[in-house]
Amino acid sequence: MSHPDLTTGIERLVLGEGDKATEVAALPPKKNTVLVSHGRPPWYGEDGQRICDAFVIGVAGGSASGKTHVARQLVKKLGSIPTVIILSQDSFYRYHTPEELALAHANLLDFDHPDALDMPMFAACLADLKACKQSNIPIYSFAEHQRLQETKYLYGATIIIAEGIMALVDPALRALYDLKVFVQADSDLMLARRIKRDVTERGRTVDGVLDQYLRFVKPSYDNFVRPTAAHADIIVPGSNNDVAIALICTHIRQQFQDRANRFRAKIAIPHLYVPPKSRSGTSSPECKLEDLDLICLPQTPQIQGILTILRDRTTDRQDFYFFADRLATLLAERSLEFLPFVSKTVSTPMGVDYHGQEPDLQYLCGVTILRSGGALERGFRRVINNAPVGSLLIQTEHETGDPLLLQAKLPDFVRQRHIAEKAWVYLLDGQIGTAAAAFMAIRVLLDHGVQEDRIIFAAFLIARTGGISVLRKAFPKVRIVCAAVDDRISEGWIEGGAKPGESNRTKVWLIQPGMGQIGDRYYL
Q1: Alpha helices, DSSP H only, in 96-205?
Q2: Tens-digit pLDDT profile for residues 208-252
Q3: What GO biological process term is on the record, naming one (predicted)?
Q4: Of 10, 303, 410, 515, which has fewest CB within 10 angstroms of its CB?
Q5: What is the pLDDT of residues 411-462, one digit of tens each?
Q6: 261 and 402 Cβ atoms separated by less than 8 Å
Q7: All domains of the chain in start order, with CATH
Q8: Nearest to 278, CA basis, from 107, 469, 412, 99
């Protein structure tokens, strides 16, 4: 067997947490690596549809040719590019029968043949990641020579580096690559590297390494691997390859720049868009509230009283905390009306049958958009008991003002697409102004398979002249429940958030009269 002696799983490193992911010396020995640096920018347009795929690089070459080194050097040189995934073909070895396991433990099973890999699964997972969807990568145990039952969840890649000796063998895989790289090294150099690695790192004998090399590795390279160099866009030497890597990185940066979206600038000027048609079938240059199809709480004296307290800048934190929870509870209760219910008959303590209703659903969860969405979480939990709650961390990029997806911690059943299709999801956010964060949050759920008409978005405030009209046109089936609708949104600036030596002002869009920074007022 020529596959590496790796542990199971996929390593995930985040800049700012421990060692820097962009330093090659800090990378773990595991080949499958997710490197998160600056957050994922929008991959969709103002119509809500995907406008660009992840950029996929296939890196092939002989065993010990230097493929992994090239992949990690690319990561190091692309330090400013967000969310890079190194995906190794070693995760996709087939499930083995008991007979095959016996051969594997006796070092008699050929892991260097294309048939040893589950190429259709490799292509399917890579196609999902390229299409900006979630994927569940199989986990292969090299100690047990077997694919495990559990999988590894991956989502949000901007650049995917698919690395392996057979990375260019399958036509279905080659069709997914935006750039195909073949790492070429002299056979004597590859053999010398294998002997040194296997003897020093894996405790093998020189005779054992040579027997394996002559029986499996060399024939595989000659028959399957080396011919795939003809499919490569660029041939990279297995050593002294700094110039080739620099050229590849220049090409990738240009591709990444060409895909820049500048999303928020498009939806922050909603007067350029024709609002949705009203129920009468006519349209107007002025965005009317009834045209937006929002569910707004009745403006009773109670609601107006709570809103008055929350809008008051002199309200102390404890009062703000208490009344925000009350308003969130009312929003959650109102939102229950949009869940499916079926008839149910129960027997009362008096022994009389009562014909009532019960929710007709199997999966229900909440997802907060951090951090102002956290102000609605307690109210959600009070109304819907025992439902899991996940979170999305979406922040503003300093230079462009675009939303950046920094982290997605979603409930387990949302991470599995066949279950997510049956799930109902409450999205929770403090307000919808330009709607940039709302766009990204809804798009994330759709990428995971959640149905648009099963998303309920709850927010305290919505700006009528903000991006809500664009959001409603893009996702008309999403139900949006709010406590109030404010008329104005204006541009402003806040201090902080820039890099050293740069301007410390960040452009923001503020709802007026609004509630201020809801997350800060709730948590600080």
Answers
A1: 98-105, 119-130, 171-174, 187-202
A2: 778 777 888 888 888 999 999 999 999 998 888 889 999 998 888
A3: UMP salvage
A4: 303
A5: 999 999 999 999 999 999 999 998 999 999 999 999 999 999 999 999 999 9
A6: yes
A7: 11-258 (3.40.50.300), 263-276+290-339+357-523 (3.40.50.2020)
A8: 469
